[in-house]
Amino acid sequence: MRLSRLSEFALAVVLSALTVASPAVRGQQIQATIAEKPEIVEWVYRVRYGYRDEWFDLFRKNQVSILERQKQLGYVKEYTIYAPSLHTSEDSRWDYRIVIIRRPHDAPVGESEGEIARQLFPDQATYRREENRRWELTTNHWDLPIHVVDVTQTK
């Protein structure tokens, strides 16, 4: 994964500041930078045959709305939704992968998935019914924390 130009610029500014700061300040800045290293998580879904459109409509309505709100609030930095271009064997089949880059800790008060769902969807009975339907259509799912491998790093 490549850093965006803005991320590269921000990293350059931080590194520049670290080179001119006192050792004590530099140590604090390094700790803050390490502490804010984003977490990357991948959600993977396999959907019952013949129901991809219905599943994705429900996912877009509910989950994408929540991710967008979390992005507005700053908890989610970015997310990307992937679908396969070709087919695979059934044992490795997946229909959607969502890669989410977010802050490296639990969502702050008011920014969790459940809290945002209550804000965005006041008719909670309908929201729960739609989410239950989406899960009925999901044949397999896993959440996987992932990380970028730095191939230039030596042991």
Derived structural class: alpha+beta
Strand content bin = 15-25%
Global outline: flat
What name does CATH use for the topology of the largest domain?
A: Alpha-Beta Plaits
Mean pLDDT: 83
Q: Tell me the number of structural domains.
A: 2
- Helix count from the secondary structure assignment: 5
Helical fraction: 40-55%
- Please identify, by name, the CATH architecture of the largest domain: 2-Layer Sandwich
Low-confidence stretches: 9-23, 25-34
Strand order of the largest sheet: 2-3-1-4
- DSSP strand count: 4
Q: Please outline the major beta sheet.
A: 4 strands, antiparallel
Q: What pattern of helices and strands is seen along the backbone?
A: HHEHEEHHE
* Distance, first to last CA: 21 Å
Radius of gyration, rounded? 19 Å
CATH class of the largest domain: Alpha Beta
What does this molecule look like?
- There is one protein chain.
- By secondary structure, this protein is α+β, with helices and mostly antiparallel strands.
- It folds into two domains: 1-36; 38-146, Alpha-Beta Plaits (2-Layer Sandwich), CATH 3.30.70.
- Helix content is 47%, strand content 21%.
- It is built from five helices and four strands.
- It has helices at residues 5-20, 23-35, 52-73, 113-120, 124-137; strands spanning 39-47, 76-82, 96-102, 138-146.
- A four-stranded antiparallel β-sheet has the order 2-3-1-4.
- It is flat, with a radius of gyration of 19 Å.
- The two termini are 21 Å apart.
- 10% of the residues are buried.
